[in-house]
Amino acid sequence: MLEAVSESEVLASNEAFYDAFNSRDMDAMDRLWAKLAPVVCLHPGSTALHGRTQVIRSWQSILGSDGAPRVSVEGPRVVMLGETAMVLCYERVTDPDTGTGAVLAATNVFVREGGEWRLVHHHSSAIGRIVADEQEPHSHLGRPKTLN
Asked: In what order do the strands lie in the sheet with 40-42?
């Protein structure tokens, strides 16, 4: 039961990340990133940004841009590793002016810091396609989509 509670907390932090992105809330984005643990961020088409200063500066640039896209999250899946958690999901990125967009794969890694789940790693990149997971034998429930 404790793991289910932790997973829901991690998903709430993951949702808060995308809410901060879509509302262009730099203060919220800043609060979501770890202050004690080392952080890394890989934006699509970019090199890795190491350290909180570089990562936060990149978000200031993105969120301050008039052309910043909208992002919706699909199929988030949590992997718990003690006081660390990974969320794997799809990002449906849409240009607010043209309505065009793309689907990206994202990995968000969180650690417990000060009793809260804080981001230490975000990686988002283009993918070729989304395919449906195969159903397990004797299963009547569909599973979330995975990357291929």
From this structure: 49-50, 40-42, 116-126, 101-113, 84-94, 70-81
Query: Distance between terminal CA atoms of the chain?
Result: 32
Q: DSSP letter for 35, please.
A: S
pLDDT score at 129: 61
Backbone angles phi, psi at 17, to 5 degrees: -60, -50
Do residues 89 and 75 touch, judged by C-beta distance below 8 A?
yes
Q: What is the predicted pLDDT for the residue at 146?
A: 44
Considering the domain 2-147 in this protein, what is its CATH number?
3.10.450.50
pLDDT digits (tens, 9 = 90+) for 51-85: 999 999 999 999 999 888 999 999 999 999 999 99
Where exactly are the structural domains of the chain? Answer: 2-147
Q: How far apart are alpha carbons 10 and 54 in whole angstroms?
A: 24
pLDDT confidence of 140, banded at 50, 70, 90?
very low
H helices of 1-148, in order, are 2-23, 26-32, 52-63
